[in-house]
Amino acid sequence: MNSFIGGDFLLTTEAARRLYHEHAEGMPIFDYHCHLNPAEIYENKQFSDIGEAWLAGDHYKWRVMRANAVPEEYVTGSASFHDKFNRFAEVMPGLIGNPIYHWSHLELKRFFGIDELLNEKTADMVWETANSKLQSPEGAARALIQESNVRALCTTDDPVDDLHYHRMLAKEEGFDTRVLPTFRPEKALSIVDPNYPAYLQKLGAASGVYICTIDDVRQALAQRMDYFAGAGCRLSDHSFSSPDFTVWDEGAAEEAVRKALAGEPLLDCEVAAYQSVMMDFLGEQYCDHGWAMQLHMGAVRNLNHKLYRTFGADAGGDSIGDTVSADSIGALLGRLADRDKLPKTILYTLNAADNDKLAAMAGCFQDAAAAGKIQFGSAWWFNDHYDGMTAQLKSLASIGVLSRFVGMLTDSRSFLSYPRHEYFRRILCEVIGGWIDKGMAPADFDGIGRIVEDICFNNVWNYIGLE
Predict the structure, then answer these.
(1) What pLDDT shows up at residue 227?
(2) Beta bridge pairs of residue 179
(3) CB neighbours of 85 closer than 8 A, spacing ≥ 6?
(4) What is the domain partition of the chain in residue ranges?
């Protein structure tokens, strides 16, 4: 049976089809937040097969396989990638409504020219067809990136990283995609993590700072920010569940560091104080560097303790958490704005109940420093499906300024994820085209087409400050 993905997939009005085919479809990609491995890009990784490319590190797929009672041996275990792929193919027909169903078939069609539905009957054909490309020069990591028309991408990197591969890639000739690091000091802020003291030793070694106080942590991170800036960094990234940035107590923050290094338990107020003080410091530094600050909020991590003990983080045990406090995020942004040190900021939520809240909050802190300075970011993780993207776009349009939106990102570890940008673009054109079709927006295809092009690429390119 042929795939359902035709040229007008998801585009139900003539206006949507015009916007997509005449304006969105040909725009390049700036994947400004992903989790690709820069070493694999530099070394031009060649995948053994579609099983490795799809299943080696994709917790989205792992979750749906477990939900179908696939034994862990075929999910993350010792089974061959061929056997894992076959088990995934068996599961695929039952994934109707899940974005993996759309993403997977888009990837098969765009990268491998496969226009058949993936299932138990077609698995052998898909395996052989996909592998014939993946095992050729056209299936290597760099070729997949360039085939997708990716102008630039930003990986996600720890402050202790030496950025060796980013620096080597910057010297490469013949590979035109810019690969930039993103500063993510997650471990330096995770003060309740038992590994925090050991991490500070690594941070101290990387920065040349002996760390025993909160000022030492600041100094070490500042040194690493300068190092990242020298490698082309333009963004930072942070992930929080439901932080409380209303707590401001520098003494409690200092005590938190002392206790953590001594292995003593911390009070909740000390944790909150530490994160508030540190984020205030980091935000000011980002402003001075001209970086954008990304705040991913609302995830609750590692709910399945057994899964976490067995496989570690990012194994499929995370979930949507509680909503984020407007007072908390407002306190952080407000303190920075008071000192004219608020950087460009992108606010993401994993809990869609926060959509209108963050869209409204972004409007409170806009200023003339940059168009769309404070962004309500793209539908993220458990929301990057048809309904989630549609809801995020409509919330932003209703409460903020959609035309300044910095658009889509993959947030992915896979070199085959770039059709997610196509998915977003089709949904974007379907939403705006629907407004035109209903008479809610003018049939100005030149003017509105330019808005679509800006959201697809131009806005984020200018926002991040690339030339």
Answers:
(1) 98
(2) 153
(3) 49, 50, 51, 54, 55, 123, 127
(4) 14-45+148-464, 46-139
What pLDDT is attached to residue 272? 98
Rounded CA-CA distance 253/277 in Å is: 7
Question: In the beta sheet, which residues pair with residue 369?
Answer: none
Cα 175–Cα 180–Cα 185 angle in degrees, nearest 5? 155
Report how far residue 407's alpha carbon sits from residue 392's, in angstroms, rounded to the nearest whole number.
11
Helix (H) or strand (E) segment spanning residue 127: helix 123-134
- Side-by-side strand order, sheet with 178-180: 29-31, 150-154, 178-180
- SS3 letters across 243-293: CCCCCCCHHHHHHHHHHHHHCCCCCHHHHHHHHHHHHHHHHHHHHHHCCEE
Positive or negative: CA dihedral 111, 113, 115, 119: negative
Please choose, from the candidates 372, 434, 446, the residue with its C-alpha nearest in 3D space to the C-alpha of residue 404.
372
Task: For the full predicted model, state whether its pTM sits above 0.70.
Answer: yes
Map residue 193 onto helix, strand or coil.
coil
Q: Count CB-CB contacts under 10 A for residue 255.
A: 19
pLDDT band, residue 465 (cuts 50/70/90): very high
Q: How confident is the model at residue 341 (pLDDT cuts 50, 70, 90)?
A: very high
Residue 84 tokens, joined? 């894992």
Q: Which amino acid is at 68?
A: N
Question: What is residue 90's three-state secondary structure?
Answer: helix
- Would you place residue 63 in the very low, low, confident or very high pLDDT band (cuts 50, 70, 90)? very high
Residue 1 makes CB contacts below 8 A (sequence gap 6+) with 116, 117
Q: What is the pLDDT of residues 266-307, one digit of tens each?
A: 999 999 999 999 999 999 999 999 999 999 999 999 999 999
Q: Is residue 1 predicted with pLDDT exceeding 80? A: no
Residue 444 has pLDDT above 80, yes or no: yes
Residue 227's nearest CA partner among 172, 276, 166 is 166
Q: Which residues contact 286 (CB under 8 A, 6 or more apart)?
A: 225, 236, 292, 293, 343
Q: What type of residue is 48?
A: S
Residues listed for the chain: 467
The CATH number of 14-45+148-464 is which of 3.20.20.140, 3.30.70.20, 3.10.450.50, 2.40.30.130? 3.20.20.140
Contact 76, 87 (CB under 8 A): no
Q: Where are the beta strands (DSSP E) in 148-211?
A: 150-154, 178-180, 182-183
CATH number 2.60.40.10 is the correct assignment for the domain at 46-139: no
Q: Are strands 319-320 and 344-349 parallel, antiparallel or unpaired?
A: unpaired
Longest dimension (CA), the chain: 66
